[in-house]
Amino acid sequence: MRPIGERLVIATHNSGKLREISALIEPLGISVVGAEELGLPEPEEIGNSFADNADLKAREAADLSGLPALADDSGLCVDALHGRPGIFSARWAEDSVGNRDWMRAMEKVWREVEATEPDGDPAAHFAAALAIAWPNDGQVETFDGRVDGTLVWPPRGDKGFGYDPMFVPVGHEQTFGELDPELKHRISHRADAFRKFVAALKE
Fold it and tell me: Does the residue 100 lie in any domain?
């Protein structure tokens, strides 16, 4: 993979994602800046997959900032709901004016799961796509990640964001909302994609 340079735009307006991705990037000796800090707009996610959406966000941030840009698109995929909310995970949290209420989103997921699969521990996974784009020439590379687990109710913990408080990763008893952030950064879907990204950097 071509060199990134000393500065990288994190193409997200989600403060939780910005913290998490920054924590993964900074040990590489690359300084990061968020898209919101640069005044970049938040593009509409019109792709048909996580990779499509990560790609378009990275391209727009790179072109507008003149810097390499890293974007993530991720979401919760529930087996009983045939993979929903999936790429619409953030939109399930939005009200009529675009404000996001993650408790409402989690309640919606759980209501639909109970209606579909009332017994047992609902299987789910978090999926992520990480895309890096360079300005001007349109080059983009994408890396996928995944972590499997089950859903719980009621939500537990306040250390994560989004659907984290209702997701227990395989091999653990705590939700992503309860786990120490350092541990989550090692086992999450985003960390899985990031390992592939770092491996490509070293090639």
Answer: yes
Instruction: Name every residue whose Cβ is closer than 8 Å to that of residue 97 and which is 6 or more positions away in sequence.
Output: none
Residues 6+ apart with CB under 8 A from 48: 87
Beta strand extents in the chain (DSSP E only) = 7-10, 31-34, 69-78, 123-133, 140-151, 167-169
Instruction: Answer yes or no: 73 catalytic.
Output: yes
Tell me the pLDDT tens digit for each residue of 84-137.
999 999 899 988 777 889 999 999 999 999 998 877 779 999 999 999 999 988
Structural domain contains residue 1: no
pTM of the entire structure? 0.87
Answer for the pair 160, 177: CB distance below 8 angstroms, yes or no. Answer: yes
Annotated catalytic residue: which of 55, 72, 73, 192?
A: 73
Asked if residue 150 belongs to a domain, the reply is yes
Q: How far is CA 30 from the centre of its chain?
A: 20
- Domain of residue 43, CATH code: 3.90.950.10
Query: Domain tally for the chain?
Result: 1
Q: What is the mean pLDDT of the chain?
A: 91
Helix (H, G, I), strand (E, B) or coil at 125: strand
Q: How many other C-beta atoms lie within 10 A of the C-beta of residue 15?
A: 11
Which residues constitute the domain of residue 45? 7-201
Identify the pLDDT of residue 95. 83
169 located within any domain: yes
| DSSP label at residue 154 | S
